[in-house]
Predict the structure.
Amino acid sequence: MGNITTNKSIGTIGEDYAEKYGFHDPEEYFHKGARGINHEVVEMISKMKKEPEWMRDFRHKALDIFLSKPMPGWGDTEVLNNIDFDNIFYYIKPTEEQSDNWDDVPEYIKNTFDKLGVPDAEKKFLGGISAQYESEVVYHSFQENLKKQGVVFLDMDSGLREYPEIVKKYFATVIPAMDNKFAALNSAVWSGGSFIYVPPGVDVTVPLQAYFRINAENMGQFERTLIIADKGSRVHYIEGCTAPVYTTDSLHSAVVEVIALDDAYIRYTTIQNWSNNILNLVTKRAVANKNSTIEWVDGNIGSRLTMKYPCVYLVGEHAKGEILSIAFAGPGQHQDAGAKVIHFAPNTSSRITSKSISKAGGQASYRGLVKVHATAKNSKSSIECDALLIDEKSRSDTYPTMEIDAANVKIEHEARVSKVAEEQLFYLMSRGLSEDEARLLIVNGFIEPFTKELPMEYAVELNRLIELEMEGSVG
Amino acid sequence: MSKNKILSINNVHVEIEGKEIVKGVSLQINSGEKHAIMGKNGSGKSSLANALAGHPNYEITSGTVELDGENLLDKSATERSLAGLFLGFQYPLTIPGVTVANFLRAAIKARNGDGIDIKNFRKVFKEKMKLLKIEDSFATRYLNDGFSGGEKKRLEILQMAMLRPKLAILDETDSGLDIDALKIVANGIMESAPKDGGVILVTHYQRMLDYIKPDMVHIMIDGRIVKTGGAELALELEAGGYDKLETEVSQEVGV
């Protein structure tokens, strides 16, 4: 913390995003498909990627599922029902080939990632990085010593080419195409994303990161990520996302499957900072085997609508799942975020901490499910939902569902909605802080349980993003 | 050598939600002086303190206030603090997730801008914590979150010591303290109160005044200062209670 700046006017909110992240590049693409979705598009994507038969079939079946499945009847149905699927670009390949040298990446793309601080982060503290631009990973690098230990970190397309057995064994096992309409869509047109495999006993001590950038208007980005931590291994994966500011919507619909085998540990951190024209409809799910731990650390800033509920299936005895999330809903934004934990095995435990901040008419909803099957005796779960309203216009809703079918289960649930109290503001102002600074300090304190879990660089970045969002809150 | 006027309050009236609570108070504090304002609950002494600090719910409807020669009343709470006013809260607020050290750094940064000297900050911070017998772990605890009554009051004095105001108004800093804590807090006030500034001790009881001898004592009843005297006035009050005083006062004004 401590990076408090002086007051800026209300008018600068959108401009700041535009200047720092919301710019867009001219499109000098290797391939840009037509708008709209049908079997020809799917066939073209699969062909361009020279995929095996089984993946091509998988895509076509998934498209049929997508076309036949109804929209979810919950979340923000008005926005969902108004998505014009015919107006979206489903596949854009910006460059002919992926590179592991920034100098080989087209200048304008390199400049974009420079502005976003990606090569800087790579040098300073990452073990590997993937930079996806539109549909494809354009830059990828990975530390040699991790490769030597047998760790695999590739873009998903390369993963499918180079490790077909592992991909075939796990792909779509955690999130089948049938799961929901957007998982089906992703399954049909997926491109890019990360593939990670950590061999037994290997501890990847530096984070691996992927950065997702949407550039074109009406783009659909459908990355697909699969992470497998083999027995007793450990890995921390981080993803970040931004997009230009446009007047019409783009769609980001990822599918992320995470598998922790016995005694493994996976942390998956997301700091998304989408522009306010992105519909962010993502399915994320992890399977935790015996004694393993899954942690989702999920930061949702920006987007017009986010519907995302990171999930953990606790299938092995003594498995642990933790989901820690924050959502910031500003004007015109709806964050429908939450968490799901399904306890299948005995002695499993889970903890959900969800924090939301709503400002200037923003709407934040917590939607969560904790299910304890009859087989999951002696399991524990605690759920804490905390909402902070910055003003009277903003809104927060909580939709927790609990289904407990087992005996000897310990469940704790707490939900709180608080307002930034005038007394708190006065207390801080009486120490010389301006009203904006006081409010920002309260907000930063509110999300502190989240930021303290982030690597330092990301905590600083997140506080800066929150500061931008909070500017001009007064009045 | 004439003394510097630190605070001049002239015929101040304060309203809360349209109801007049302070009904014309005048008070002058010179540099180096400590004044006690005593009174029962509801006498208006805390309202006066909050109004001076710029609490939005306490409206000063008439009168003037000058801090070190500057008009205080056209300033926001923030500006009053930056101008050198400090209010030690009767009920300090909890700010979860904000550590004491980060909060104090932000408050000092608000004064000194980005030129805050971190090394010096740490040094002064450690000294002041030691003075108030505060453990180092205090620095990383969240502001008043889970603090005992005594810890909260010590933190208020720590803030005063760090921010070095021209005028400190300490609103019932003695309440909720046991005798040991009272001694430590009183000692902290004596050591770190602004030497050439002023202090107003707002209190119900005389006991803190055993440790901090006031230059003047003002008794407030029903929104007015009804009696002013030296330190001995507090002792009289302690012996006779507010009721005796109230009777005297009402006889004087012929009610």
Q: What stands out?
A: Residues 294 and 321 of chain A are 5 Å apart (CA to CA).
